[in-house]
Amino acid sequence: MNNLFQLKKIITFCGALACLSAFACVKAARAETATSPVTSENSPLVLAKRGSFFIGGEKAKQNFIELGSQRAADTVTINQMYVEFMQPVGKTKLPVVMVHGAGLSGNSYDTTPDGRMGWYEYFVRNAYPTYVVDQVGRARSGFNQAIFNGVGAKEADPSQQPKITRMGDLHAAWINFRIGPSQGVAYKDSQFPIEAIDELSRMGIPDLSASLTSPNPNYQTLSMLADKLDGIILMGHSQSGHFPLETALLNSEKVKAMILLEPGTCLNDQLSDAQLKKLTSIPLLVVYGDHLSSSTELPGNALGWQQRFEGCQTLIKRINTLGGHAQMLYPPSLGILGNSHMLMLDKNNLQIADLIMDWINKNTNQ
């Protein structure tokens, strides 16, 4: 009865303030009624199971040079994806699959740079079986070394060797990730744990996305994962922000919800109405943080953050017009200021996670 009375007070209070979004009221109610074992990392994390596996990939024949000039020609597997997971005890909800962005790995969703609980653990503590991947060609998924060995042995033209990119500390991270407008200067309301900025640099890894074939093998591999888990909530971030859309087009039956975290693109200019019609049965949430006028620090006429945001707003309208259910979560509209591009690492990362989980609970059959 006490919780019910408190909830009624909250609803009345939210109404009086004319909440900007349903997210605000739901968040307040959740905070008031949440139990400490769900939100506290000080309590033991009890799991039904944890582990890892690889999924996807194909066999490839490689010669002596391509294999590194140590052993005779042989076959190897390329384009596989590494997946790690934790399954909570008791009644669980739909599995959540988390995909990282450019120049990073699945570590993005684990412990934050300043040592706080990340989304990987937090979603598990809230009854979601959680699967964190390393994109094909990245980190523990490995990469295809053949062309690099071929160029090194002068058996392949250097022009065939894909670029290996790396996210620098100032232009790619500090400014592009919207921690601050210039080196060493953070936004006054910045939610990023600035004291741990060196840890963010350590998280960066060489990015071999340019080496992947077309269509991107990540889409098919994520579709296979959706089949293996018999239905998933698929979350992409930044460079992989549009992966849920691409995967759902391949497997609309097993992708149960799509969450796009600060996507580099929402594919609004690329997807036809016929393609979007296939996605209308799948709830879509797009999430963007603050300070969208900041530069992406990309050369040429690359879209800025505000333009990307507006493109996603247009896609949301198109999907809803076709009968779907798409929504934008923009924390500044709720009075939540200062979130960076790395929402899952920010000091209020669990607050943002709560808003996302509230949306999941309202829009999927749990």
UniProtKB/TrEMBL annotation:
Signal peptide: 1-24
Stored Gene3D superfamilies: alpha/beta hydrolase
Keyword Cell division assigned: no
Taxonomy, superkingdom: Bacteria
Keywords per UniProt: Signal
Entries under CDD domains matching the protein: Esterase_713
Ranges in a coiled coil: none
Protein name: Esterase
